[in-house]
Amino acid sequence: MAQQHLDPTDPKGEALGRYLRAQATEFLRALRLHRETGGATANGAEDPADAARALRRSVRRISASLHTFRPLLEPEWSESLQPELAWLSGTLAMEHAYAARQERLLLALHRLSGATVFPAQAAAAASSPPAAVVGGRSAGAEPVPLKTAQAAAGPPAPAPTTDRGNLTVGAAKAGALLERQLTLARTRAHSTALQALGSSRFHAVADKIAVLASEVPLTPTTPTTPLHPLAAAAEDRLTDAITALPLVTAGSPYNAEALIHGLSPDPSPHPQDAPWHQVRLLLRLHRYAREALHGTGGPTDLRLLTAGQALDRHRDASEAAAAAASAARTPRIAPATAYALGVLHADQRHEVEAARFAFQQCWQKQAVSTP
Amino acid sequence: MAQQHLDPTDPKGEALGRYLRAQATEFLRALRLHRETGGATANGAEDPADAARALRRSVRRISASLHTFRPLLEPEWSESLQPELAWLSGTLAMEHAYAARQERLLLALHRLSGATVFPAQAAAAASSPPAAVVGGRSAGAEPVPLKTAQAAAGPPAPAPTTDRGNLTVGAAKAGALLERQLTLARTRAHSTALQALGSSRFHAVADKIAVLASEVPLTPTTPTTPLHPLAAAAEDRLTDAITALPLVTAGSPYNAEALIHGLSPDPSPHPQDAPWHQVRLLLRLHRYAREALHGTGGPTDLRLLTAGQALDRHRDASEAAAAAASAARTPRIAPATAYALGVLHADQRHEVEAARFAFQQCWQKQAVSTP
Q: Which ipTM value was assigned to this complex?
């Protein structure tokens, strides 16, 4: 907030108005698309997952701008809209998160089980077919892309008869259990999202965003106020949070930090992950603040993108590890299933550690901007 | 074998004779010490583990020299002694290996469970006290050094009553199961070693080594034959084997290679570990060949030492991971126990990967010799 010496060419509040109008327009376009596809894939129509992603994308950006540039916006308006956007963003994100988690865990089990043995057995061991949920990550009508890979993986292996074979059966059963649990969670998240999109609460938010598309409620002095100090403050919050991370440990490969307390009484959520999740959010706020200043066609900071991807991977692996631990607490599972879930949990915590290392490596490098 | 251009100051076969006589003398000293302590610790007497270690140490060196410098030794004599030394070395190594594996796995469980909760619970959950086995790694009469640390770890945690607590119970039960299985294996290995040391087969080997202490059966031309070409050939075999290792992958942190097929039908032994185990043996042969050339007071190659330690860690973690997987196949264990063993298995495979990374890092460096 100290940099008040400003270049007259620096972006002013007008730029924030333009950015918010563009994001609101994008939201309305995505909402129209979502209603046209009816939340389900019609033949030849656009993928409802694309519409859902575009909705989430614009809601996140509007919400972030309200947060970062709060002093420039009409207080009553932004304070009433902010929690509604958080609710909407959270509700819309769940289905995608469960779908991605399922895919991550099944791919990891696949990798851990050898390429030809597990998939066929998993398909045979899965006691329930996946529910017909829509709006997942993949294109097309089939919501479980892994199935295709599984079907193509060759003839089924002979049923294991030795003691050693139990572990493979364990991997197959663990896969079936996770698929069942996460498909159920995804189906529920889908219903919740559909209900939310039909609610009067949502209609009130959508109306406000429709107004935003033509008229951004700026304070009287905003159009000529420089944006840079507020964007710089967002960057400072990010930098401070990164400074507080254990980057020396993270930069030392195989520090075995992420699996510490992996069997402690409260493995989920992992408290050591929280500062990294926080940096992920602050990095996103910083990135969107840059967008507001320079427009979405502005320069891309490759370091920011790569760091963000590492932190996304950290979050995904952290949540996948927790899901594996949670599945292991299902009553009456076989020991072989529990063993496979233990290996899977540790594998994903290993991924958490790898993501921290990747973040540390990329953050050490000088920022490289490309036009 | 190409380097026949030799420096007249290079060591000749006489040096090999000196080295073998010294190792044979060391063997006889260790054997006398072992008989005095009777394989058990008397008050104030030397530790029988030290005697056992000294026996293994000299047997390994004699055996390695017979292998590397075979053309310089009387063929009939060395060919009859070699398999006997391999038998003796293997028999003597087992008890120590089980003790070290037990300590490694219990320490890992301890680390994975949080410092204050697991040990007290593990002690309570252990259904059988460890057998009074002697000759383990630690000094003193108590063969399970971890116990002391466990007793000092504070008051017992309250018994867990929540679902999440099951995992902690799982870690405690896994620890108790491993302790039982490995203590049994260790007791058996101890008995086998004692039987071996009392057998006529052993007495025949000991007699041959007693002769070796005064008279090394060299071929007639050996005393003036240079040792260097045979030592260089041993180094070439090491270098070739290292070149064949997947060092590029190993040098890329978090390559997740070691856990691939972690749930495949045949997780133990891991075929991908074999070339590393082979390099470990070839590195030892190279190190002992250097000792024969330069004497045990010769220059220490720190890189060789560090590389050897990394490969020891690789072997230990590989075998510990296999022991955890094997314990998980015990019939009628609780799912929480199996889950903890799965986490432990993956943790040790992670250690395998870390050891490969450490080896790659140290091998990249220039050889540094200190006097």
A: 0.82
